[in-house]
Amino acid sequence: MTRGRVLATDKVIRQATVYRQVCGFDAFARESTGQIVVRTGTIGAIVLPSALCQRVVAEMAWPGPVILDTSSRRPVATMMTRPPPSYLRSSSTYAALSAVEAVLMPDGDEVLLPSPRDPARRWLPFEPLDPYRPTAEVVVTAILACR
To answer: For residue 127, what are the domain limits?
Structure first.
């Protein structure tokens, strides 16, 4: 293993530790890929088109952590929330979110957090500095208001 790879892996592990200790994410590092992952369940996540997300972030007083993912042709954003209550998983909420191309991620899905080895993902507008996350209800309401 080269020294550069060891240093890059150390940065990934350090960043995952910051996410756990500072942000309250139950994050872990995949050393082989340099990905930092958190599973939904202890957190909630809503994926939506980045243009819509920017309107939602502007609408909300405290939007919480948002990840911009530019790895695909059409950039998306993931808004991190508190764990969503079960009633938000109803068919009417699903239909309303689907109409604006947004998805409330099911429990157990993986969210890729920005990592030193992943230039396609970054925090919007900046990295979280505490464990604050808005409720999923507030975020869904803001998404539907901005459609």
So the answer is: 3-145
